[in-house]
Structures are given as structure tokens and as C-alpha cells.
């Protein structure tokens, strides 16, 4: 038994030692992302679709899921704002008419017309129309192929071409969980000039990577601060793709902890009340 414990202890020490060595091989910059920052996620998905989706897929994610998670709230908020303006007889801007037209599934050109539609249409119909409007925005701004809004997000590059040109084009659905967000952030900002490589660049984080520096135009045309924000947005989006339930789980977790705290207080007070009777002998066992 002692020998087995010694073997387990030695293996644990060796594993820890190698993990420490592995973690010190490459310095990773802190991404400082926030998955609850919807604006960052919106910018991130647009950058990903424009600069990354040509070679990389996120095949565990669907376009309409992105629309629902990242853009639907803004569509609803725009409608609610326009609706309040209509009901309060306030002046409407162009964006308000657009929001009302989406919600009512008809071109709205005047406040009176909007009021008439609001009286006839149900809440469920409005919710369905807003979801359809969100899908249309996703189709317009994020889908560059003939895919449908309910499709999985696959790469435009075929597997055979990817192997021929780059060796592979890995799916990035779970890269944030397998590599960590800091790794993605550090990798995307880790490219440097290397004339010995095919694409003229190398990477500090993954030496001799076959991927070209696809963000070089952003790096040239933007300030260092703006470029790093773009990389942070892409990293944040890939963190969301790795576990979309985080958007709900974090919020739900806080509510559950709050409920348990309140329950603990009432449970403690009830316990004191019960044990008070036992302590002073008010409860007696039957003979």
C-alpha cells in the first residue's frame, strides 16, 4: 500500500513539474475579455466572419443562435423605444420607423399607422416578427455564402484544399476551452516578420505556424489600441462560441446564490425556533 502511495506521489510531482515547465515556455498576455459585453461580442463575430471564416469553421454554432444571443436584445430595445415614443406622441426618427416596421411586419410611415397596427397585433406576433427581423440582419451582415440562417457555420475552404495549402484548417468551436482565451489573444497578436517562412511571418506563441497574418491590414490601418481591441473582441467571441450557455449560466448562478442565501437565513431562523423548544424541554417523548 505504501509503495502504491509513493508511486502516485512521484507521478503527481512529475506531472506538476512538467506542467510548470509547459506553462513557463510561452508568456501569454491577459486578454481581459468580458463575455457579458454584447458590443464586444457583436464586433467579434463581424471580425471573425470577415477575416477568419474563409478558412476556419465553428461548426457547433448556428447563425440564428448568434442572432438570438447577440443581436435580438438590441432589436427588441429599439422597438420598445419606438413604441414608447408612439404612445407618448413624441416625434419619430428614421430608426424608430425601421424598428416599428420590423416588429409589425409592415412598412410603417406614420405614428397613426403604428398605433393602428399596435392595437391589432398580438405580443406573440411581435416577438416572432422581431426574431425574423434579427435573422434577416444576420443573413445580411454575417452570411457571405448561400447558407441559410439555421445552418451550422462551416468554412468556405474545402478540407482537401486546406490540407494542400496549410496542412489543416482546424475548427475553432472549442479552441477557447482547449487553449484558453489568453492563448487566442496572445497568438493573434504574436505574428512577426520572418522572410524564411512561406507567408513571410512567424508567431511567438506557435512557432512555424502555417497560418498567415490575416489581420495585417487591421494592424496597419489602425492604432495599436484599436488593433488590440479588435483582437480582444475576436477572442471574446470565440470564448462565447466555446460555451454559449455562459451568457445564461453566469446570470442564473448569481440569482441562485442569492436565493440560497435568503433560504439559509430563513432556514437558520426556523432551526433556532425548533431547537428552542427542545433545549428548554417543551417536547417530551411518550412513555
Automatic annotation (TrEMBL):
PROSITE patterns: CYTC. InterPro entries: Cyt_c-like_dom (IPR009056), Cyt_c-like_dom_sf (IPR036909), Cyt_c1 (IPR002326). Keywords: Heme, Iron, Membrane, Metal-binding, Transmembrane, Transmembrane helix. GO terms for cellular component: membrane. It is found in: Membrane. Its cofactor is heme c. Signal peptide: none annotated. This is Ubiquinol-cytochrome c reductase cytochrome c1 subunit. It comes from Ruthia magnifica subsp. Calyptogena magnifica. The lineage of its organism: Bacteria, Pseudomonadati, Pseudomonadota, Gammaproteobacteria, Candidatus Pseudothioglobaceae.
Amino acid at each position: 500500500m505504501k509503495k502504491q502511495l509513493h508511486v502516485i506521489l512521484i507521478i503527481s510531482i512529475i506531472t506538476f513539474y512538467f506542467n510548470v515547465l509547459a506553462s513557463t515556455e510561452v508568456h501569454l498576455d491577459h486578454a481581459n475579455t468580458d463575455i457579458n459585453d454584447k458590443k464586444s461580442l457583436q464586433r467579434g463575430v463581424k471580425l471573425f466572419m470577415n477575416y477568419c471564416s474563409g478558412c476556419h469553421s465553428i461548426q457547433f454554432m448556428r447563425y440564428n443562435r448568434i442572432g438570438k444571443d447577440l443581436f435580438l436584445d438590441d432589436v427588441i430595445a429599439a422597438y420598445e423605444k419606438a413604441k414608447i415614443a408612439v404612445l407618448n406622441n413624441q416625434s419619430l426618427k428614421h430608426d424608430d420607423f425601421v424598428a416599428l416596421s420590423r416588429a409589425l411586419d409592415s412598412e410603417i410611415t406614420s405614428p397613426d399607422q403604428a398605433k393602428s397596427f399596435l392595437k391589432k397585433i398580438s405580443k406573440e406576433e411581435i416577438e416572432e416578427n422581431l426574431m425574423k427581423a434579427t435573422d434577416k440582419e444576420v443573413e445580411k451582415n454575417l452570411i457571405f455564402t448561400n447558407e441559410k440562417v439555421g445552418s451550422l457555420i462551416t468554412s468556405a475552404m474545402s478540407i482537401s484544399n486546406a490540407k494542400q495549402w496549410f496542412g489543416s484548417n482546424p475548427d475553432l468551436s472549442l479552441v477557447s476551452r482547449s487553449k484558453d482565451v489568453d492563448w487566442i489573444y496572445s497568438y493573434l497578436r504574436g505574428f512577426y516578420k520572418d522572410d524564411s517562412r512561406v507567408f513571410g511571418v512567424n508567431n511567438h506563441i506557435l512557432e512555424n505556424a502555417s497560418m498567415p497574418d490575416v489581420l495585417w491590414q487591421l494592424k496597419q490601418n489602425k492604432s495599436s489600441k484599436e488593433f488590440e481591441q479588435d483582437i480582444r473582441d475576436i477572442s471574446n467571441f470565440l470564448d462565447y462560441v466555446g460555451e454559449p450557455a455562459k451568457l445564461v449560466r453566469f446570470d442564473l448562478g448569481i440569482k441562485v446564490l442569492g436565493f440560497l442565501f435568503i433560504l439559509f437565513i430563513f432556514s437558520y431562523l426556523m432551526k433556532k425556533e425548533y431547537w428552542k423548544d427542545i433545549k428548554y424541554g417543551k417536547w417530551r417523548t411518550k412513555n
